[in-house]
Amino acid sequence: MLVAGSTSACDVCLEPFGGDSKAPCTITCGHVFCVDCLANINPPLCPLCRKIFDPRFTVKLHLDLDNVRAPPSPNGASAPNDDDARRLYQAISNIAEAGCSETQVRQLISEGKSFLQKQPKDSFKDLRTLYRMVAYLCEVKTTLRAQNAANEALKREHAQLQAEKNELVAKIEQQLRVREQERQAAWATESSLRDHCTKAHEAYETMVQQVSYDLPSPEALD
């Protein structure tokens, strides 16, 4: 919740909210605890929903909106500014408790900006703080989405480059296999030629020896 009622108590120490160290503070998930308990939470995880929160965006609550009453107008109706502020508070509370779409958050940011720009700068301080927190978180989400999209694009590019690399490696391996086959074929051809030459030389030597045996000696010719 974002509103501390007059009978509300801290969900950690169970003591009623009060001033100073027992002042109610809301964290980014929307739950409210006293200042003392928040100071002792380490690591910064909400004791109720266990969501991580940023201590920099802890908002101290000073108003009990259930008991706030605007000065009556002449016709007995509430002041329009207080009604709009209460509606914005409630809208932010609904976001923290139930969540909503990004479109709804941006619509709320636009409405809050339009409302606060028309008010004195020193008015609705808590609402201004909550508005800045919601706007900041929305921008963080937008940035994260852009970063995720960039990461996905890099992953796709990496996958494409990896596929091209694998294709080139396969071609190189194929060329190496072809060259190895050609080398083995050349070696086999060379070995065959060497064997053929050796056999031809042996046949030639045998033929020369046979011819020399058949020729008459010089003495026989005399």
- Count of the domains: 2
- Rounded to an integer in angstroms, the radius of gyration calculated over CA atoms is 45 Å
Reported for the largest beta sheet, the result is: 3 strands, antiparallel
Helix proportion:
55-70%
User: How would you classify the helix and strand content by structural class?
Assistant: mainly alpha
Overall pLDDT: 80
Strand content: under 5%
**Which strand order spans the largest sheet, edge to edge or round the barrel?**
2-1-3
Number of helices: 5
The poorly predicted ranges are: 65-78
The helix-strand sequence is: EEHEHHHH
Name the shape in a single word.
Answer: rod-shaped
Q: What is the strand tally?
A: 3
**End-to-end CA span:** 140 Å
GO molecular function, one term: zinc ion binding
Coiled coil: 144-178
Protein name: RING-type domain-containing protein
Keywords: Coiled coil, Metal-binding, Zinc, Zinc-finger
